[in-house]
Write a structure and sequence with these properties.
The chain is an alpha+beta fold. The protein is about 25% helix and about 45% strand. It has one domain (about 30-185). The protein has 4 helices and 9 strands, in the order αββαββββαββαβ.
């Protein structure tokens, strides 16, 4: 009887460890901001960032079967205040859609804001475009006051609502579809 309970405990621990390892593996997918910097260029602060896209097998499978994937890049500049909420000076966003065209065997990346389209022969090359932001005009220097402190933020959000209706419930519940970053905040150096 005592040996049987040891076996049950061992089995339960094994199941628990497999669950932990599986969830850790599932967390290897998603989007994260790797590095970011802002600098003054002429009369504007510009932003450059490197973002890591790790798509899950389910997202890649859906993409390769004709489902387009859409991300919104959100930017914010806030004035830090001591006694009340931070004041939002700038909120900007732009969107990228990625599609796969089976007939052409090409990945197409579309900047939804300006309509620019680029084609790539590999998914890695398409994700490289999504992963790199260079010299994005963030805010004019004239909108900032020298004596105040400012914080800047970037978030990349996967638009689950842009998926076809049959996929949406799965996208909301399955961690394989959690393809958004957290807010990445840093001080704006004047």
């Amino acid at each position: 009887m005592h040996g049987s309970s040891n076996v049950k405990v061992t089995i339960l621990l094994s199941v628990f460890l497999v669950a932990i390892i599986s969830s850790a593996h599932a967390c290897a997918t998603g989007v994260s901001v790797k590095s970011i910097e802002t600098e003054l260029s002429a009369e504007d602060y510009v932003l450059s960032a490197d973002i890591d896209f790790q798509l899950s097998k389910k997202a890649i499978e859906a993409l390769n079967n004709g489902v387009s994937l859409l991300w919104t890049y959100q930017f914010v500049v806030k004035e830090q205040r001591d006694y009340v909420w931070d004041k939002i000076l700038i909120e900007k966003h732009f969107r990228y859609r990625i599609q796969y065209h089976a007939l052409l065997k090409m990945y197409r990346v579309i900047n939804v804001n300006n309509g620019a389209v680029e084609n790539f022969s590999t998914l890695e090359a398409a994700l490289d475009l999504l992963s790199t932001i260079r010299d994005y005009r963030l805010i004019e220097k004239s909108k900032l006051v020298d004596q105040k402190n400012y914080i800047t933020g970037l978030k990349v959000s996967f638009e689950q609502d842009a998926l076809p209706l049959p996929l949406r419930p799965m996208a909301y519940l399955n961690p394989a579809w959690y393809l958004s970053s957290d807010w990445y905040l840093w001080p704006l150096k004047k």
